[in-house]
Amino acid sequence: MVVRPARADDAEAMAAVVEAVAPEGTLGAQPPVDVAARARGYRELIGGEGAAAWVLATPAVVGFLTLYPRTPGVLGLAMALVASARGRGGGRALVDAGLAWAGTTDAHKVDLEVWPDNGRAIGLYAATGFVVEGLRDRHYRRADGTLRSSLIMARRLD
Ligand SMILES: CC(C)(COP(=O)(O)OP(=O)(O)OC[C@H]1O[C@@H](n2cnc3c(N)ncnc32)[C@H](O)[C@@H]1OP(=O)(O)O)[C@@H](O)C(=O)NCCC(=O)NCCS
Question: Which residues have a Cβ under 8 Å from the Cβ of 7 and sit 6 or more positions away?
Answer without folding.
Answer: 46
